[in-house]
Design goal:
The complex is a heterodimer of chains A (413) and B (310).
Chain A: H1 3-17, H2 19-39, E1 48-54, H3 65-75, E2 79-84, E3 101-104, H4 108-135, H5 141-160, E4 169-171, H6 179-197, H7 218-249, H8 251-256, H9 262-292, H10 300-323, H11 327-344, H12 356-362, H13 366-380, H14 383-407
Parallel strand pairs in A: 1-2, 1-3
Antiparallel strand pairs in A: 3-4
Helix pairs in contact in A: 1-9, 2-7, 2-9, 4-5, 7-9, 7-10, 7-11, 7-13, 9-10, 10-13, 10-14, 13-14
Chain B: E1 5-16, E2 19-30, E3 34-38, H1 45-52, E4 60-65, E5 68-69, H2 73-82, E6 83-86, H3 98-109, H4 114-120, H5 136-148, E7 154-158, H6 166-181, E8 185-190, H7 193-199, E9 202-207, E10 210-216, H8 217-224, E11 228-232, H9 237-245, E12 249-252, E13 258-262, H10 265-277, E14 285-287, H11 291-299
Helix pairs in contact in B: 3-5, 5-6, 8-11
The chains are: A mainly alpha (413), B alpha/beta (310).
């Protein structure tokens, strides 16, 4: 084993000098994390684009006071409002980004004011009658008659107030699954707006109570998923090509003709890949912290999971590279195993987003157990949640290394 | 002087399914000699040396390197300490420097004489250069350095100059000659006649897994190579007649070129002095018999530059 440190040093140097290894081993996963994290998993709450066509304008094009205030209220909520002039054509959808247009009708301000005053009068009359009923016999009959007369006068005045309830329309695609929830949100905002106009407050209140359950962002999901996925590709694709190349060059023949044991060669590759995996973890955590404020710090369990995953996939990579004798066959086999596994295992996106049958398929992929164990250990901080998948990864590591030893030919190439 | 064998091969056979790659070959390689296995591609040269390098298991037969059997696991361990190997079409690691590649081989052998080997092969000044940036000749020299590091007693060079340009090939020959001067036993496989003839003390011509001829190069040429030929441009008729009268075999081609066949070096001098006596100033082109002639006579066909039988 005296040769091992030198072998590890030299194999690591060769790995670090390979532009392809650096790109696919470090840069590509960092790029994915930055892109997917920014697009889908960033720290901002979701924003919904809403086009608003305000027909409540005067001849000079100036919007009515209440329609302007309502639009402001929408913009201060979850919506990102884009105003359309009355004669602007409807924006065309790309087919992927939904287009939703809220039209505020002409006369919105006047109608809303009238309806609000009428409502206030009705409420006032109703409130007086309720109080009289509650007071019962304690109110003298004459006084009661005068009050009822006043209420009739109020109601009579209410009848003289014109205006009708403004009807807003929300246009959207029938395939837009968010259209209905968005209509609900607009209705809530409209109700609050009406209450404010009535100078009333909501009769009930909902307030949040924070629990101990950690709500993960998508970027928290991505980070361990990408680390696991690229430890897997570094092993299956990178190592298989490295080993095949060593055979093709005659390097394995040269080494096998020396006293160097086969086990030292395999162990050196495994150690180099473990170092590479740890660097990848460090780089991803640093980028995750710097850009997305992910504050995970790897504990012993996370490092053990990384080690087991590296052993498993490096073992499979050595086995592929050592058993096939054509570059095309090595590339085809490694890619045909690695890429479907990457997409099917749920490493790149949450399993919950996938159809049920694909979720079932994911559980048959080795990468699934690796990224779940790593996420539980590294992000969720749940050793209990990591235990079972980590045991599966340990079994895969034993299998991978056994295959590597069997497939690596040190004689009779 | 009694020479001791470094390698003894006894009825070594290798079969791949129905294909008999090496068929009961036996030979010895003496200590300090350069021994060449000469033959076309697919003749079984590489399979033979890989069995000797303990990289292939023989189907039957045995071989002993310095007395250690290639079939005995303990012997194999000892043999691996004795040998240095340059595999066929070897290419070191592109992303390591010259020094690092030789260091890799040294580490696997437990050796520390990297600098010494690099200096000996004129690579010390290039030690920091990446292997991928080297010319073909220098790459092969790095391969030889990787085989030589650790001072092996027996060196196997499998097609060491294949694919090299003539200059790089001659340069490689110099290093192999240097090994011979240092007393290293060298087993060389090649399909280049000139290489085998210039470098080796003894040669085994191997075809279809069997040894067709074996022996010292000079003796093989004497026995199978035929006569030395002297080519003359436009030799006068009286000179031709005179040479024939003195018992020389003379052929005159239709283009006027005369070919005189002689057996020994002294006969060459005699022919020229005979012509001088006749006041004929002639400077013949002398073509000595070589391994190519031996190969042609023994095998019945020539070997092309690419190692195919023509």
């Amino acid at each position: 084993m005296r040769a091992a440190p030198t072998l590890i040093k030299l194999l690591f140097k060769a790995w670090m000098r390979s532009k392809q290894s650096i790109f696919f081993g470090f840069l590509f996963p960092v790029m994915l994390l930055l892109i997917f994290g920014s697009v889908f998993g960033g720290p901002s709450p979701p924003n919904y684009t809403l086009y608003v066509r305000n027909l409540d304008v005067d001849q000079s094009g100036k919007p009515g006071a209440l329609s302007e205030a309502f639009i402001r209220a929408l913009n201060e909520s979850v919506f990102e409002v884009h105003l359309l002039r009355p004669d602007d054509p409807a924006p065309r959808g790309t087919g992927f980004a939904a287009v939703r247009i809220l039209t505020i009708p002409k006369g919105f301000t006047e109608n809303l004011l009238n309806v609000t005053v009428a409502n206030r009068l009705e409420i006032t009359a109703d409130t007086i009658l309720r109080m009289v009923a509650m007071a019962g016999e304690s109110i003298p009959p004459q006084t009661r008659a005068e009050i009822e007369s006043s209420v009739r006068a109020i109601r009579s005045f209410r009848q003289t107030i014109g205006g009708e309830r403004p009807k807003l329309t929300l246009e959207g695609s029938p395939d837009d699954r968010l259209l209905q929830p968005i209509e609900g949100i607009i209705n809530v905002i409209a109700s609050k707006f009406e209450l404010a106009l009535l100078n009333a407050s909501s009769a009930m209140e909902v307030s949040s109570v924070l629990t101990q359950t950690k709500q993960l962002r998508l970027v928290d999901y991505y980070l361990p998923g990408y680390v696991a996925a690229f430890v897997m590709t570094n092993g299956l694709i990178g190592v298989s090509l490295l080993v095949f190349d060593a055979y093709r060059r005659g390097l394995v023949k040269l080494l096998a003709s020396t006293p160097l044991p086969k086990s030292t060669w395999i162990a050196s590759i495994v150690v180099v890949q473990t170092i590479v995996s740890l660097i990848l973890l460090g780089v991803m955590l640093a980028v995750g912290w710097a850009v997305f404020r992910i504050s995970a710090f790897p504990d012993a369990l996370s490092l053990l999971v990384i080690l087991l995953g590296t052993l498993a996939f490096t073992g499979f990579g050595v086995a592929i590279g050592g058993s096939l004798r054509e570059a095309g066959a090595v590339t085809a086999l490694a890619n045909s195993v690695a890429f479907p596994m990457m997409f099917l295992s749920g490493a790149l996106w949450p399993l919950e987003l996938m159809p049920e049958f694909l979720q079932a398929v994911a559980r048959f992929t080795p990468l699934y157990y690796f990224h779940v164990a790593l996420r539980e250990a590294l992000i969720v901080g749940s050793p209990a949640g990591a235990l079972l998948p980590a045991l599966v990864v340990a079994g895969l590591a034993a299998l991978g290394l056994s295959l590597a030893v069997v497939a690596t030919k040190w004689k009779d190439f | 002087m009694r020479v001791s064998p470094a390698i003894v091969v006894e009825d070594l056979t290798k079969r791949y399914g129905d294909v008999l790659a090496v068929d009961r070959i036996s030979f010895t390689v003496n200590e300090g000699e350069v021994f060449a296995l000469l033959g076309p591609n697919g003749a079984g040269k590489t399979t033979t040396v890989e069995m000797l390098e303990c990289l292939r298991t023989p189907t039957s037969g045995n071989a002993y390197l310095k007395g250690f059997s290639i079939r005995d696991p303990a012997g194999v361990r000892e043999i691996k300490k004795l040998i240095g190997v340059l595999p066929q079409e070897f290419n070191a690691e592109d992303d390591l420097t010259v020094y690092e590649n030789v260091e890799l081989a040294a580490a696997s052998k437990g050796a520390e004489n990297v600098r010494e080997v690099l200096e000996k092969l004129g690579l010390w000044e290039l030690r920091g250069r990446l292997f991928s940036k080297l010319s073909g000749g220098l790459k092969r020299r790095v391969g030889i350095a990787m085989a030589l590091v650790g001072d092996p007693e027996i060196v196997f060079l499998d097609e060491p100059t294949t694919g090299l340009d003539p200059e790089a090939r001659r340069e490689t020959w110099l290093y192999i000659k240097q090994l011979k001067r240092e007393g290293v036993t060298v087993v060389l496989t090649t399909h280049y006649m000139e290489e085998a003839e210039r470098l080796s003390d003894r040669v085994a011509i191997i075809v279809k897994g069997r040894i067709a001829a074996i022996g010292e190069v000079r003796r093989l040429i004497e026995e199978h190579g035929g006569k030395t030929r002297l080519f003359f441009e436009g030799l006068e008729e009286r000179a031709v007649r005179s040479l024939r009268e003195r018992g020389y075999e003379v052929e005159v081609a239709p283009d006027g070129r005369a070919v005189v066949k002689v057996r020994t070096q002294s006969e060459v001098a005699e022919v020229i002095s005979t012509l001088r006596e006749l006041s004929v100033e002639a400077y013949p082109e002398i073509r000595r018999a070589g391994l190519e002639d031996v190969f042609l006579r023994v095998i019945g066909s020539r070997l092309t530059e690419r190692g195919e039988l023509a």
